[in-house]
User: Which sequence fits this backbone?
């Protein structure tokens, strides 16, 4: 069996294979509630054979949304539509996961296809919070308000409450969004955090919001279920987050109950010119983090070929591959990859309604 198609056990949860659907905002929720779109989008990727389907960045509070269309878990009415989706995803053999987060200074923006800019005065904008009153810049020019200690305590509580709702919604894998220049990453990165209190300055202080938030979630998320973090492990910038610092943070979180690392990168500033784009460009860093932190890791970014994906797992660079755009192009990527890699009876990855008719 190719390594990519061997099961992966994470706490009490076993993925049927190591193909993971990366969280992808759909900007298609209504007041934070999932719609038919999400049932079809997430359901199709479970039907396509993935081991784990991680639902999009889901806001822990209304002000933590990127756009009006973001998913949310800030109230109980948001639970029921997700239960239906998660039942379907799990019935089709995938594990249902979700990413929870807060958009920080990138909040209150238009949907990408409506402009991607901060909302204007006539577009129902909302107040933007961040560690410091420093704007992201470029297409997101609004200067956020620096969070008070009360804000920090409240948002931490929002994360824990959202985690409880995620459990009630039937998710079995929970990921904290500590990446891509959103709130947690803004606390970690000196490029966004200019605080002079215990939440800014030194490495310890810049970690504090992330560690406290992690602890608050771990306290309510069942011990037997995996808790993951998606971290931008480098800012690709002078004075920004480094891989070395990220490894130290991840070791701290490991000691506090972290089960899985979704290795990501960048986006705390608009400057993406230093990102070394190319197939699998984050794989060597993922391998290093896996080795030095000693936890299961997922490798993402520009992984598309089945043989390359299989080699990443086979060679021990990562425990799974996390695919986004390939999965948009082809929800049956896992089935097609299984065929390409010579898995016996690859059609068995598909539901019987399909597999019965497919001889190979
Ligand atoms: C439509 C879309 C929405 C995305 N939304 C999220 C998100 O909600 N959370 C997140 O961590 N990353 C998000 N990303 C980034 C992807 O999860 C992924 O890391 C990135 O696209 C690189 O993987 P790829 O090369 O396989 O596409 C999004 C990407 C796309 C294309």
Assistant:
């Amino acid at each position: 069996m190719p390594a990519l198609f061997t099961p992966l056990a994470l706490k009490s949860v076993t993925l049927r294979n190591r193909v993971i659907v990366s969280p992808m905002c759909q900007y298609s929720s209504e007041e934070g509630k999932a719609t038919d779109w999400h049932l079809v989008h997430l359901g199709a990727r479970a039907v396509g054979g993935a081991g784990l389907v991680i639902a999009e960045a889901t806001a822990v509070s209304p002000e933590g949304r990127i756009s009006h269309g973001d998913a949310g878990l800030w109230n109980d009415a948001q639970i029921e539509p997700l239960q239906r989706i998660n039942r379907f995803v799990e019935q089709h053999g995938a594990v249902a996961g979700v990413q929870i987060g807060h958009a920080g200074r990138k909040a209150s923006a238009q949907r990408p296809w409506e402009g991607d800019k901060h909302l204007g005065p006539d577009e129902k904008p909302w107040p933007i919070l961040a560690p410091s009153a420093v704007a992201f810049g470029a297409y997101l020019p609004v200067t956020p308000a620096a969070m008070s200690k009360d804000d920090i305590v409240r948002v931490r509580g929002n994360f824990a409450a959202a985690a409880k709702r995620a459990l009630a919604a039937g998710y079995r894998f929970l990921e904290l969004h500590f990446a891509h220049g959103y709130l947690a990453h803004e606390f970690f990165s000196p490029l966004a955090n200019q605080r002079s209190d215990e939440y800014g300055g030194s490495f310890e202080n810049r970690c504090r919001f992330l560690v406290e938030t992690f602890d608050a979630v771990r306290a309510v998320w069942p011990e037997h279920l995996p808790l993951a973090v998606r971290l931008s492990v480098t800012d690709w910038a002078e004075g920004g987050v480094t891989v070395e610092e990220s490894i130290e943070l991840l070791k701290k979180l490991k000691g506090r109950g972290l089960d899985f690392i979704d290795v990501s990168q960048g986006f705390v500033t608009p400057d993406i010119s230093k990102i070394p784009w190319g197939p699998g460009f984050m794989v060597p860093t993922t391998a290093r983090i896996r080795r030095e932190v000693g936890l299961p890791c997922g490798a993402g970014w520009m992984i598309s070929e089945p043989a390359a994906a299989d080699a990443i797992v086979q060679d021990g660079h990562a425990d799974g591959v996390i695919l986004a755009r390939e999965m948009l192009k082809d929800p049956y990527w896992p089935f097609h990859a299984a065929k390409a890699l010579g898995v016996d009876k690859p059609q068995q990855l598909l539901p019987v309604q399909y597999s019965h008719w497919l001889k190979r």
